Amino acid sequence: MINPQSLVIILMLVSGVISAFLAFVGWRNRGIPISQPFILLMAAVTVWSFGYAVELMSTSLSAVLLINDITYPAIQTVPVAWLFIVLCYTGREQYLTRRTVPLFFIVPALVWLLVLTNPLHNLYYTGFHPGVIGTSIFWIYEHGPLFWIHISYCYILALVALVAGGVHPGREDPVQVVPADVGLVGDRGLGRGALQQRGCKDGRDGGES
């Protein structure tokens, strides 16, 4: 019987390969505006998946914490990139400009700083202890009060994405939001036409990026 932890590692590696391939597909079709946040999302998921797989394969706490420090920016990027996709898909890409986009990463940058400096204050993680599944050892994180900054921001972004995706500007019917439609980046011609029909302008038409 396969070890449950080994199964999770395999699933994470498969997830990383798939998301890396989708990031490549998005890059091949980067002329479609929605492909830009899509590439960001898939790249972040790739780093997160591979990083978590390596973390599960590591038994040393110092190695696990190093991997966590490296992959945490990717973890923070996932909800931000998802919101960007929803805004672009629903015709609200005007909110994503050179001035506004960096603002979405202020909290993720702060959270990453808290993670990196945790040994100085122990308020993001209060402790770590080993867990055992069969013959495999993994490390369990005990979260402190500052961890909830990360959780709160993720839920806020998810709520904004849900609200933004509920009703398309200029349409009376609710939009069935994004997961299946993200695949539009896989077909350059079809994707461009469909996205323009939904109000997501081509970046080369003079809109601010």
Description:
The protein is mainly alpha-helical and 209 residues long. It is globular and about 50 Å long. Helix 3 (61-89) packs parallel to helix 6 (147-166). The N and C termini lie far apart (52 Å). The chain has helices at residues 4-28, 35-57, 61-89, 106-116, 118-121, 147-166, 188-197; strands spanning 125-133, 136-143. The protein has one domain (4-196). It has a two-stranded antiparallel sheet.
Map the helices and strands.
Layout: H1 4-28, H2 35-57, H3 61-89, H4 106-116, H5 118-121, E1 125-133, E2 136-143, H6 147-166, H7 188-197
Low-confidence stretches: 171-209
Tally of helical runs = 7
Shape: globular
Sheet/helix structural class: mainly alpha
Radius of gyration: 19 Å
Q: Tell me about the biggest sheet? A: 2 strands, antiparallel
Order of helices and strands: HHHHHEEHH
Defining key terms:
58% helix, 209 residues, 7 helices, single chain, mainly alpha, disordered C terminus, two-stranded antiparallel sheet
